[in-house]
Amino acid sequence: MKWYCTAFMAFLFFGCIGLDRAEANHYNNPDPWWDKDYSWCLDPYNDAAGGNLFEVYKIGHAIENGKLYVSVKTGFPIGGARGGDSYDNRTWFSPGDLYLNVGGMFQTGNGTVYGIGTTDHSGDRTKDPNDGPWETVYDGKLYIGSNFATGTYETYPTNTPSDGNNSDNMNNYPTLIMNYLTKVSGSSGFHYNDGWNYNEYFYWVDLAAIGLDVCEDGSCAGGTGLTQSLQITWAMECGNDLAECKIEACENEVPEPSTVALVGAGVLALGKRRRFRL
Please, what's the b/e burial string for 5-38 (b: 16 or more CB within 10 A of its CB; e: otherwise)? Predict the structure, then answer.
C-alpha cells in the first residue's frame, strides 16, 4: 500500500529511508492478555522504501467482551528511525498513532475520528509548515475528535488514490494525533512487543467509548457485528507505508437467498389475503 520515497543521494532514497534505529524497549514474552483471535488485513510486502524497517506487514482486529483489540505488525521500532522526507533529508521519525474512523474513511474526509496514542508526544512533531497546532498526547489514551497530521513524504505520483487523493500530489495518510476535542482515560490501552521477526503494536478500546456496539444477532456482512462501519489504519510519521482494515456495519448485511425467498413468499401471501378480504 505504499510508494517509495525519492532519492536524496545517488545511492540513497529521500523519503523515510532508515539510516539507523533507536534502542527499543524489549518484551521477551508478550502479555497473554493481547493473544486474541485477530482477523487480519494484509499489506503488500516490499512496498516501502528503506527495506523492512519501514514495512507495515499487516493489521488485525478482534472484538471481545465489548472491547475492540487491534494488532499491528511492522518492521518499524517503538524508538523510531532516522531517514529523509520532503522537508528534511535527515530527520527522526516516530511510530504513528492508531487511527479509528467510525462511519467514514480518511480518503473521503467523513466520519468521526478517534485516535489512540502510541508514544507520549507534544509540540510540533514534523517540519511540515502546514500542520498543527499540536497538543500533548499520551500513549494508550483515547482522543475523541482527533485531527491527525499526514505523512511527510509528499511527492506521491498523481493518479495514486491509495494516499487519499488521486490528484493533489500529497501524502494524506493519517500518522500522528495533532489535536483533539476530548481526552479519555480508562477506556483504552497500548502495549508494545519487540518480536523476533517484527515489532508488534497492540491497542484496545471500549466499543462504547467510540460510539459502537455489537449487533444483537452478532453477525453481519464481513462477520463483524458492529452497528456502524469502522476504518482502522496505522502508519509511521513519514507515511512511507500504511496498513488498513475496513469493517462494514451490520446495516450493510446482504440477506441469505433463503431469507429473501421467505420474505417474498410472505409478501405474496399477505397480498392474497388482503385481496380475499376485499
Answer: bbebeeeebbbbbbeeeeebeeeeebeeebebeb
